[in-house]
Amino acid sequence: MAVDDAAHRIIGDLLAQRTGQQLTEGRRWRVSSALAGLFREFGIENVDQLACMLERPGERHLATRVVEALLNNETYFFRDQAYFSVLANQVLPDLASKRDGKKRLTIWSAGCSTGQEALSLAMIFAEQPGRWKDWKIEILGTDVSGKAIDHARSGCYTQFEIQRGISVSQMLNFFVEDSGHWQAIDSIRSMTRFQQHNILNAPPPPGRFDLVMCRNVLLYFDPETRAAAFDRLASGIAPDGWLMLGAGETVVGQTEKFKPAEFGSSLYSPVLEDRVNFLPRLRAAAT
């Protein structure tokens, strides 16, 4: 199923319009394999035929299915364990001291895929009952994929999914086996909720988050779209909150809304607007 330039452009424009992601040359090879199941289901012979179908009015459902198939929903529990160690041992204790008065934390897992990242965070809190007693913990997971969000809301994982990233004790403590699938227990599910959301839109409630995890989402954006995404993240995070990106992502040279943290890989803090504008005002006043 060769993808010619015209068909590639139509499919790429659709993906960019719906998600902000770019179908670059480096990702072009995925089109045929990602859409193979869709081709069989709809009796489509090649990508040229698919592109023609997408151009017809009334094909919104097909367009949605194409976008869902092209999204990379790869994830697993405690993905990149070192990052969760930084969260458990440095970021969350820092936030605990800052929020001790109100005893409430709100966390945004942006690009949460099928929910493993949000549930991994919930397990960290559940494994430290003494530290987080009487705290209200809210973890919001969002993703542009409606299919992924439905999976996350179910809290149910296959044997393959449950074995990726968690220990046997965590599996037995936080999940219940049922007919070959594993269901997350209520005590960790109660900390999480999931919502379909495009990161390029306004931040979802509850507004300013104490911690935002947005890992391996910005990789597929062009510089302009990435800058817009940083603006949205900055408007949704508390002034003294934290942003965690993926290993291949950085704010350096991408945005002035965040600065690297003094500790932790891929960890950043917001740059306050007043501080950004202070030096230019000070220089102007001195002249």
Fold and architecture overview:
- The chain is an alpha/beta fold and 287 residues long.
- The protein folds into two domains: 66 residues, no CATH class; 194 residues, Rossmann fold.
- The protein contains 13 helices and ten strands.
- The strands form two sheets. Strands 6-2-1-7-8-10-9 form a seven-stranded mixed β-sheet, sandwiched between helices. It has a three-stranded antiparallel β-sheet with strand order 3-5-4.
- Helix 1 crosses helix 4 and helix 1 crosses helix 5.
- It starts with a helix and ends with a helix.
- The C terminus is likely disordered.
Oligomer: single chain
Low-confidence stretches: 274-287
Structural class: alpha/beta
Shape: globular
> What's the architecture of the largest domain in CATH terms?
3-Layer(aba) Sandwich
Radius of gyration: 21 Å
Give a count of the beta strands, DSSP E runs of length 2 or more: 10
Task: Note the main sheet.
Answer: 7 strands, mixed
Taken as a percent bin, the fraction of beta residues is 15-25%
Whole-Å distance between the termini? 66 Å
CATH superfamily of the largest domain: Vaccinia Virus protein VP39
Number of discrete helical segments: 13
Order of strands, widest sheet:
6-2-1-7-8-10-9
CATH class of the largest domain: Alpha Beta
Please state the average pLDDT score. Answer: 89
Domain unit count: 2
Helical residue percent?
Answer: 40-55%
CATH fold descriptor of the largest domain: Rossmann fold
Protein name: Protein-glutamate O-methyltransferase CheR
InterPro entries: Bact_Chemotaxis_MeTrfase (IPR050903), CheR_C (IPR022642), CheR_MeTrfase (IPR000780), SAM-dependent_MTases_sf (IPR029063)
Organism: Erythrobacter aureus
Keywords: Methyltransferase, Transferase
